[in-house]
Q: What sequence folds into this?
């Protein structure tokens, strides 16, 4: 099996530039590797080899004419099945959209296409991005490439697993409460949630509009920086998109960034009950940062413990309304048994949605109901402001970045938590705050557990300061020695 | 016992913007179903709303017309309900921070007759908010069809206080709203095309009682006159109930225009919980002082203000102004004509009496009858008045010229010169016509000399006839008087 599939985007980009490989060869390598191994992982929900090879051929032709579209030209990228591409299915891993094909393309993907990236496949996820294990997919779970009996994390489990398994050079996911960083942590890859508003949400099927962000998965920080720079843009089609300069993140990475910087370690993120291996891995990583010249400061983010209730009020409230359009009337699953319009809604939604999605829609409808709105939704919004203030105060005190574990444990077994939603929700305890505060966060692999499972180190940056966040992550990656450590998937 | 009705109206008005409220698809009435749509209108996965600032400006403009307070920040909320008229199953609207607050609408009630201005009063507004229109369902045997063409069209909802007391007031209020909104180019307000829709909240109480009676909402009234009839019926029905001691149920009713009665649609128990919450896809709208000033500068004069000005400054009769000031096209035509020649009375008279009559005759004959298609431009009409005022032709000849202008679009000067209609001011010739007339009618001369001033008309007639109507009437009169002496 060709090992070009294992290379980083940067290496591949250089090889393409030098003519050492063609995009068609590279794309074929991923197609073959996926065909051989995805039966075990089940990262993909949709693959179109012909379409990918057409994209690769077009890239090679451009290059032959001396007209490349940049560093990503010819690089195969896969997408979480929640991002719309014209003439491709968009299932959101739901029976509800099993036969839906999108007639338009998301802005983030248009940006990728404008830079010559080759679209290769659509990746598994928790249904409508609701879940932390990828077990809520209507089309079966994805398996963790490091241990096929374990979950890859979620909701972007397929995106993380596909990058870890080297089925593509890099991928896009979406992060509402940790859905990029937590699976990145569990699959031993780099995953980043940008500042809310940096990447257009146009074409991202909404879960919780005020929290959702599209972000990159890659095997190195530099690759993630390349992909982020390619997808980020101000988009007039997304009113929450923000007009900020988008620097060449990858070219500007500073590997000596840590020296003299202040890293804030929130005491609330290393609670007493934390998994011992995760604690040890984080503490060891912190020591490495200190040794590289960073100053470690213990800080407090006092409203941390409120994050989960606040998140499950705001996210479900928005979801209950966002998912109302999947109703059996136009393009979704429609129940064959319906007698009238109300029955059509009930039955189509009962048949089309999975348990977790229903649970969240009911919860969200409840917290918005007349008489409960003030006590739940309005109050949650106020606490959200306090959570944001916690971070602002930390940064105002001179902290350059906040560091923390990404996930409270390494990957758990398939089925282990599936019957206990509350236990499952706790997986997002270290990542949710970042979405509530709208901040950028990244997970970088920092160690392997005794069982050989990856553990992620989370870095949280200032709003729209992705460049410093990526430099910090890049420097940490150098120290942690996990770059190029990949699962042995045969 | 005497009873008093209390009425509040909720009026929905479609804005005449180029595109829809949250996407750049246009809206037009009467197109093929589902052709004015896009992924946003279909609420496909991943789409997002984008604000149409033209709609925001028009909504603020509407508020300014009625003296509403325009707050610094307005926000968007989702009104959640399941029904196929809204593809998202929520409607984007404004719940607690609308674009316009307060305000009032001046209305005119009927006067003694058409020649006299009726009493005016002001109806208080609660708010005006901006939202998106929904699609249209049609129900057939065994199936229902939905057309999303109308969905997403910008719609303002103008909510009045419970400040009206009769069907006549409600009718006058709707008329005034429509005139103002049409004058400000906010909407054509055609109820037949659904551009203006009205729901009425009606209650009745014993006169003098402070608290309001049980409220009934009257929905889906499809014309101005039906609003009046529906309300009047509902008031009678409620008073009847009170007189008979039957409890009035809080409910929604519809007006059946064919039967002339209101009928129950649903009771209050069926009321929705709309689960309003702030839309996370749209940022709140910030309204700056600059924007306010810009929109304020675009405000037209309100029809009633215009009418008072015409009556007081220009001495136009009420009957003429009430035609002129309740038709935007006509009043614009009038203003344009005044730029060429400033004789408001004569121009208004020609416009309201001659031009409208010709247009309506042409319309009845099946031809074009819009002012916009009329061959007489405002400048041409003013030109005719100018020619009359300069003494070149008489008023009588002017009417003849007008008919020719209407048919050909030629200028008054051109017609006068082509047809040789120029007034005759040749004193020698006029004297000759006068002498001829006097020679033929000695009796009239005697009567005039005896003190019967009117007798001179018997001489003027033949002079005008002999001159083919072109003799200057003033000169004829003067010459006759001189010669008789």
A:
């Amino acid at each position: 099996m060709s090992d070009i599939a294992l290379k980083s985007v940067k290496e591949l980009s250089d090889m393409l530039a030098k003519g050492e490989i063609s995009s068609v060869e590279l794309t074929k390598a991923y197609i073959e590797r996926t065909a051989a191994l995805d039966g075990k992982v089940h990262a993909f929900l949709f693959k179109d080899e012909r379409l990918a090879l057409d994209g690769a051929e077009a890239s090679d032709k451009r290059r032959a004419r001396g007209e490349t579209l940049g560093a990503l030209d010819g690089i195969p990228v896969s997408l979480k099945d929640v991002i719309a591409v014209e003439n491709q299915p968009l299932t959101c891993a739901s029976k509800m959209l099993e036969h839906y094909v999108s007639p338009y393309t998301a802005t983030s993907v248009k940006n990728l296409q404008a830079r010559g990236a080759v679209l290769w496949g659509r990746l598994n996820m928790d249904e409508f991005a609701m879940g932390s294990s990828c077990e809520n997919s209507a089309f079966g779970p994805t398996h963790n490439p490091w241990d096929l009996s374990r979950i890859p994390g979620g909701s972007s489990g397929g995106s993380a697993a596909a990058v870890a398994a080297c089925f593509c050079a890099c991928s896009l996911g979406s992060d509402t409460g940790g859905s990029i960083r937590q699976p990145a942590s569990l699959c031993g890859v780099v995953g980043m949630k940008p500042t809310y508003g940096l990447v257009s949400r146009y074409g991202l099927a909404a879960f919780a509009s005020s929290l959702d962000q599209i972000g990159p998965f890659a095997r190195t920080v530099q690759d993630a920086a390349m992909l982020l720079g390619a997808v980020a843009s101000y988009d007039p089609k997304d009113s929450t998109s923000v007009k900020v300069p988008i620097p060449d993140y990858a070219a500007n990475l500073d590997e000596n960034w840590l020296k003299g910087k202040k890293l804030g370690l929130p005491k609330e993120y290393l609670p007493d009950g934390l998994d011992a291996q995760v604690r040890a891995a984080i503490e060891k990583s912190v020591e490495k940062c200190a040794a590289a010249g960073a100053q470690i400061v213990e800080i407090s983010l006092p409203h941390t413990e409120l994050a989960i209730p606040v998140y499950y009020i705001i996210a479900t409230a928005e979801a209950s309304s966002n998912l109302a359009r999947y109703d059996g009337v136009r393009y979704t699953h429609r129940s064959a048994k319906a007698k009238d319009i109300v029955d059509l809604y009930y039955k189509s939604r009962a048949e089309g949605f999975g348990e977790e999605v229903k649970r969240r829609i009911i919860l969200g409808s409840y917290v918005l109901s007349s008489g409960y709105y003030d006590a739940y939704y309005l109050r949650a919004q106020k606490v959200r402001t306090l959570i944001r203030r916690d971070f602002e105060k930390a940064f105002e005190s001179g902290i350059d970045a906040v560091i923390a574990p990404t996930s409270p444990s390494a990957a758990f077994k398939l089925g282990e938590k599936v019957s206990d939603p509350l236990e499952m929700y706790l997986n997002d305890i270290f990542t949710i705050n970042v979405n509530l505060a709208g901040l950028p966060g990244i997970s970088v692999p920092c160690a392997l557990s005794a069982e050989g499972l990856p553990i992620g180190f989370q870095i949280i940056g200032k709003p729209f300061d992705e460049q410093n966040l990526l430099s910090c992550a890049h420097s940490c990656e150098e120290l942690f020695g996990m770059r190029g450590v990949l699962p042995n998937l045969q | 016992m005497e009873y008093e009705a209390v009425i509040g109206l909720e009026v929905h008005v479609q804005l005449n913007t180029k595109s829809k409220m949250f996407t750049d698809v246009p809206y037009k009435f009467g197109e093929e179903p589902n052709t004015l749509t896009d992924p946003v209108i279909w609420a496909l996965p991943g789409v997002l709303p984008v604000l149409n600032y033209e709609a925001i400006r028009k909504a603020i403009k509407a508020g300014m017309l009625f003296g509403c307070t325009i707050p610094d920040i307005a926000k968007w909320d989702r009104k959640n309900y399941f029904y196929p008229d809204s593809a998202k199953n929520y409607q984007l609207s404004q719940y607690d921070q609308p674009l316009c607050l307060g305000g009032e609408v001046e209305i005119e009630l009927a006067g003694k007759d058409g020649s006299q201005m009726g009493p005016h009063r002001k109806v208080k507004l609660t708010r005006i908010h901006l939202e998106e229109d929904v699609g249209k369902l049609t129900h057939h045997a065994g199936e229902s069809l939905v057309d999303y063409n109308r969905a997403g069209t910008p719609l303002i909802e103008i909510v009045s206080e419970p400040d009206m007391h009769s069907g006549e007031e409600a009718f006058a209020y709707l008329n005034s709203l429509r005139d103002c909104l049409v004058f400000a180019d906010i909407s054509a307000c055609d109820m037949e095309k659904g551009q203006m829709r009205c729901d009425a909240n009606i209650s009745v109480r014993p006169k003098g009682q402070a608290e309001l009676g049980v409220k009934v909402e009257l929905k889906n009234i499809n014309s101005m006159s039906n609003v009046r009839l529906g309300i009047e019926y509902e008031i009678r029905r409620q008073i009847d109930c009170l007189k008979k001691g039957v409890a009035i149920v809080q409910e929604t009713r519809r007006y059946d225009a064919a039967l002339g009665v209101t009928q129950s649609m649903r009771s209050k128990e069926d009321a929705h919980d709309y689960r309003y919450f702030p839309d996370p896809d749209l940022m709140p709208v910030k309204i700056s002082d600059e924007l306010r000033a810009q929109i304020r500068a675009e405000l037209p004069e309100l029809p009633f203000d215009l009418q008072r000005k015409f009556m007081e400054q220009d001495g136009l009769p009420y009957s003429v102004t009430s035609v002129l000031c309740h038709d935007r096209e006509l009043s614009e035509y009038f203003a344009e004509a005044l730029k060429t020649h400033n004789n408001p009375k004569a121009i208004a008279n020609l416009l309201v009496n001659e031009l409208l009559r010709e247009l309506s005759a042409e319309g009845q004959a099946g031809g074009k009858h819009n002012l916009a298609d009329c061959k007489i431009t405002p400048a041409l009409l003013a030109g005719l008045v100018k020619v009359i005022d300069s003494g070149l032709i008489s008023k009588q000849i002017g009417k003849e010229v007008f008919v020719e202008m209407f048919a050909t679009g030629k200028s008054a000067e051109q017609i006068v010169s082509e047809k040789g209609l120029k007034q005759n001011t040749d004193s020698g010739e006029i004297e000759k016509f006068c002498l001829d007339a006097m020679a033929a009618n000695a009796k009239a001369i005697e009567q005039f000399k005896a003190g019967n001033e009117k007798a001179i008309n018997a001489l003027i007639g033949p002079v005008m006839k002999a001159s083919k109507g072109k003799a200057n009437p003033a000169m004829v009169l003067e010459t006759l008087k001189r010669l008789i002496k």
Summary: The mean pLDDT of chain B is 92. Chain B touches chain A through 30 residues (CB under 8 Å). Chain B has three domains: 3-291, 301-412, 427-484.
